[in-house]
Write a structure and sequence with these properties.
four-stranded antiparallel sheet, 18 helices, Topoisomerase II, domain 5, alpha+beta, 29% helix, 4 domains, Gyrase A, domain 2, four-stranded mixed sheet, Topoisomerase, domain 3
Length: 791
């Protein structure tokens, strides 16, 4: 064959017969991909908003449909259909299934021309698109689908809540999302659990998109001094086996070190995952760690995307979903009514012919017998009695003995019922209100027949991201701060109580000549305010204070607070202790006092805030909280004390300088500042506890101190001598510690680190102008009291 002829033949084969068309591969890829994408979107991955089903789901239900199957749910499976552990289902030869009663509601009236039927993929059969869908399946079962360039993820809901919302929307077409959420509280997952934050739920319903936090339902149980965490319900779509493996991995990697055992006790009755904890574990902390590090807490990403009118993908709000269901049901009920009306009219037409035939039964029978054939009989009946062809055929379809035995009353009664039915059906078609009433009646029936209790609990507030505080054990601690700025926290039982006059124990290893100046009992979750000698304030969570042993010196506080040179912490206040108070009262060494609202310190910057403007070389030394109706007590190192009303001090701004609280002599300074609760003082004795430089102390009833005007020199509160030394600390004890049922200890630390803890009830109650008794004996002769605190 010549080359020319071969080329001609190839050209003919390529374009001549019209089956092959040369085309750009770019254009072909674009067109083919768009066709594929539309096929996936419309015919595979996305549900139809009208019945909530993807095409494959609809085919299965329709293929299994019959008019006598009455059970429950969509499909009732028998055999291994998989599990929450991710196990795959058994091969199809080992499983079988049937429709459940609620699936029957999806298919109800399909035989009454309520929906359109279209050819299947190969044209061999016809299938419905969509189903009649009496059940609002899109919401109650939810769905998950990934199409091309889009995806849908709809959470399941409670049937009763959805039915109530649809009924409400029928009566209130202008209903808002808030109105509808009075009915639909939120998703209701089959696995139960908890969901958080109604604002997130509202966002998802109002926009069709959003994230809802899901959390497992767990309880903390105690047995023989140890705790265990028991998980009863896990979040929706979480694989239980994977979850357990993740917990085990965290234990192996020592990310959670307080878990001693893990077992799965789940059975056919439900989930039960048991997490055994070590004896020293803090169970809530462990549970919070599990929430943060495992799928015991996860988020459901809502994307309510569906096909509207069977072809248009749209993201729908809750209201739009309910409106689409109402619109679909209106069409279905109207088509069903039209079908039933046509059937009723057809039957009534036949019955009217039979009634007329009964009036001439003998003539009709004679006419039929005399006719040559069926066509002749039909024509003669139509001509003589004006029967329609349909009526004539109905008469001819009856045997002669049936025709002769027709019962007039039975036919007339049936005709009467049909005429009433026709009138009712026509009224439905003519009235939107009647049509809506049918939809509401269907919803009420569904709610009554298939209702069950909500499984998922909704917690209104948000939980947000886990903070460090969520993972820290909540426990009481003692915060200790030294004069040279070293800080640490220790358990409150570090220092055991001793008798008065004891030698104590070594409580802190300090640098040479360093002493403890501040001891505070707080909770690890408390926010601590650090007031400095230069009148500034900083904030720090208690759990960020480093844990140290009883004898360790701790860490430098400058590692945690941005202090200036020569600036020291003079007072520490736990915000947890002042929640019910209104003011902070501040006192300097030179007797200046200031009152400021606590709310001014709610948000303290990391760089600190000005708490008090100081003059000259004065230093801020005390900060106490008050109610605004208390008395102030100031005590000087030379043994003077003054008591005056808090109202003598006007409330000032945060940066104000303050006013004179007590007039001091040369070389005298304030060593103690306390607040006396007048109402408490009326009901029980209050005592001023003073401790001197060389370990003496006493308690004196506060009623011995009369109320004076602010700014005076005060009255004598202790007989200061060379033996006692000057006063180094003064505190008001707000209870009568002579009562055996009342607990309270005094912790004193010497300048050389010696510590003693003794019951306050052991400190003698003496008159105002006395020396006191020995409270602490020093191991070294040149030692002195450096700090005093109450625990």
């Amino acid at each position: 064959m010549s080359r020319k002829k071969q080329e001609e033949r190839e050209e003919d084969a390529f374009v001549g017969i019209g089956r092959v068309e040369p085309r750009s591969i770019t254009d072909e890829m674009k067109t083919s991909y768009l066709d594929y994408a539309m096929s996936v979107i419309v015919s595979r991955a996305l549900p139809d908003i009208r019945d909530g089903l993807k095409p494959v789901h609809r085919r299965i239900l329709y293929a299994m449909w019959d008019n006598f199957s009455m059970r429950h749910q969509l499909v009732d499976g028998q055999g291994n259909f998989g599990s929450m552990d991710g196990d795959s289902a058994a091969a199809m030869r080992y499983t079988e299934c049937k429709l459940m009663p609620i699936a029957e509601e999806l298919l109800m009236d399909i035989e009454k021309d309520t929906v359109d039927f279209y050819p299947n993929y190969d044209g061999s059969q016809k299938e419905p698109r969509p189903l009649p869908g009496k059940v609002p399946n899109f919401l109650i079962n939810g769905t998950l689908g990934i199409a091309v360039g889009m995806a849908t993820n709809v959470p399941p809901h409670n049937l009763t809540e959805v039915c109530d919302a649809i009924a409400y929307l029928i009566d209130h077409s202008d209903a808002s999302i808030d109105d509808l959420m009075e009915c639909v509280k939120g998703p209701d997952f089959p696995t139960g659990g908890l969901i958080y934050n109604t604002e997130d739920i509202k966002q998802a319903y109002a926009t069709g998109r959003g994230g809802i936090v899901m959390r497992a339902r767990a309880e903390i149980e105690e047995d023989k001094g140890k705790h265990r965490i028991v998980v009863f319900e896990i979040p929706y779509q979480v694989n239980k086996a994977t979850l357990i493996e993740k917990i085990a991995e965290l234990v192996r990697d020592k990310k959670i070190e307080t878990i001693s055992g893990l077992r799965d006790e789940s059975n056919k009755d439900g989930v039960r995952i048991v997490i055994e904890l070590k004896k020293d574990a803090y169970p809530q902390k462990v549970l919070n760690q599990l929430y943060k590090l495992t799928s015991l807490q996860t988020k459901f990403h809502v994307n309510m995307l569906a096909l509207v009118d069977g072809i248009q993908p749209r993201v729908l709000t809750l209201k739009m979903v309910l409106e689409e269901h109402i619109k679909h049901r209106k069409i279905v009920i109207r088509r069903r009514t039209e079908y039933e009306l046509a059937k009723a009219k057809d039957r009534a037409h036949i019955l009217e012919g039979l009634v007329k035939a009964l009036d001439h039964i003998d003539v009709i029978i004679k006419l039929i017998r005399a006719s040559m054939d069926r066509n002749d009989a039909r024509e003669r009946l139509m001509e003589k009695f004006s029967f329609s062809e349909r009526q004539a055929n109905a008469i001819l379809d009856m045997r002669l003995h049936q025709l002769a035995n027709l019962e007039r009353k039975k036919i007339e009664d049936e005709l009467k019922e049909l005429r009433a039915l026709i009138a009712e059906l026509e009224a439905i078609l003519a009235s939107e209100k009647k049509l809506m009433a049918i939809i509401k009646a269907d919803l009420a029936m569904l709610s009554e027949k298939y209702a069950d209790a909500r499984r998922t609990e909704i917690v209104p507030h948000a939980i947000g991201e886990f903070s460090q505080e969520d993972l820290i054990a909540k426990e009481e601690v003692v915060i200790m701060l030294t004069r040279d700025g070293y800080i640490k926290r220790v358990p409150p039982d570090t220092f055991k109580s001793q008798g008065r006059g004891g030698k104590g124990v070594i409580g802190l290893t300090t640098k040479e000549e360093d002493t403890v100046e501040e001891i505070l009992t707080a909770n690890t979750h408390s926010q601590l305010l650090f007031f400095t000698t230069k009148g500034r304030v900083f904030q720090l969570p208690a759990y960020e204070v480093p844990v140290s042993s009883r004898t360790a010196k701790g860490q430098a506080v400058v590692n945690f607070l941005s202090l200036h040179p020569n600036e020291k912490v003079s007072a520490i206040v736990s915000m947890a202790d002042v929640k019910k108070e209104k003011y902070f009262v501040m006192v300097t060494l030179q007797g200046v006092i200031k009152r400021v609202e606590i709310s001014a310190f709610q948000n303290v910057r990391s760089s600190g805030l000005i708490a008090l403007t100081l003059k000259g070389e004065d230093r801020l030394a005390w900060v106490r909280s008050s109610s605004g109706k208390d008395d102030m007590m100031l005590v000087s190192s030379h043994g003077q004390a003054i008591r005056f009303q808090e109202t003598d001090i006007r409330a000032m701004g945060r940066t104000a300088a303050g006013v004179r609280g007590m007039r001091l002599k040369e070389s005298d300074i304030i060593v103690g500042m306390e607040i006396i609760r007048r109402e408490e003082e009326k009901s029980q004795p209050h005592y001023l506890l003073v401790v001197t430089e060389y370990g003496s102390g006493k308690r004196t009833n506060t009623k011995e101190y009369k109320v004076q005007k602010r700014g005076g020199s005060g009255i004598k509160t202790a007989n200061v001598t060379k033996k006692t030394g000057t006063i180094v600390s003064a505190r008001v004890v707000p209870k009568d510690f002579s009562d055996e049922s009342v607990k309270g200890d005094l912790v004193m630390m010497s300048s050389k680190g010696q510590v003693i803890r003794l019951p306050l009830k052991s400190v003698n109650v003496l008159k105002r102008a006395t020396q006191g008794v020995r409270l602490m004996r020093f191991k070294e002769t040149d030692d002195t009291i450096a700090s005093v605190t109450l625990v």
